[in-house]
Each structure stands twice: as C-alpha cells, then as structure tokens.
Amino acid sequence: MLVLTRRTGEAFVIGEGIRVIVLAVEGERVKLGIEAPREVPVVRSELLAVVEAANRQAAGTRTQVLERLKRVFTSTSRS
After folding, report:
1. Which has fewest Cβ within 10 Å: 13, 29, 34, 64?
2. What DSSP designation does 6 have?
3. Which of helix, strand or coil describes residue 67?
4. Residues 6 or more apart whose Cβ sits within 8 Å of residue 35
5. Comparing C-alpha atoms, which of 55, 10, 62, 2 is closest to residue 31?
6. What distances in angstroms separate CA 54 from CA 42, 47, 67, 74, one per listed residue?
7. DSSP state of 39
8. For the stretch 14-33, what's the b/e string if a residue is b when 16 or more beta carbons lie within 10 angstroms of its beta carbon?
9. Strand (E) positions, the chain?
10. Cα 32 to chain centroid, rounded
11. pLDDT tens digits, residue range 1-56?
12. Backbone phi, then psi, for 7, in 5-degree steps?
C-alpha cells in the first residue's frame, strides 16, 4: 500500500487520466475530488461490497434452482 501525505489543494495522479485532489480536511473527514474519464468507474468500496454480495447470492440462487429442476426432470423421466 502506498501512503501519501497531501495538504488541501494538493493532488496525486493514478495511471493515465485519473487525478485525486484533496478538497478539504474537516476533523477526521477528508473531502476528495476525483477527475477521471467517463469510462472509468469510480465506486465507493462499501457499495461495491454490497453489489458483490448480491451478485454472489443471485448466482447461488440460480444454481439452487437449476439443481431442483434437474431433480424434477430426472425423477419425471424415470416414471
């Protein structure tokens, strides 16, 4: 992990075309501005974690449904 110290108004660059600017420091909160091309998604990590969890749950549900259907069709074909 790279740790940087920046003051209000200072910035750093990530890769090509992504710039992060320290806008303000208020107590324990830091306000950041992010300049990035429109095609680069910028998402808060806690929201990404929620989406990933929902995707895992949806994928698991789909697998469970397919297993049930397989059992139904397997037992039907034996009759």
Report:
1. 29
2. -
3. helix
4. 17, 18, 19, 20, 21
5. 10
6. 19, 11, 20, 30
7. T
8. eeeeeebebeeeeeeeeeee
9. 11-14, 18-26, 29-35
10. 18
11. 999 999 999 999 999 899 999 999 999 999 999 999 999 988 888 998 898 888 88
12. -100, 165
Structure token digits, residue 23: 């806008």
Q: Both tokens of residue 37?
A: 């091309």
Tokens of 47: 């929201």
Tabulate helix, strand, coil % of the chain (nearest 5).
Answer: 45, 25, 30
Cα distances (Å, whole numbers) of residue 36 to 10, 20, 69, 70: 16, 9, 46, 47
Structure tokens at 31: 């306000």
Residue bearing tokens 């910028």: 42
Q: What is the DSSP letter of 4?
A: -
Residue ranges of domains in the chain: 1-41, 43-79
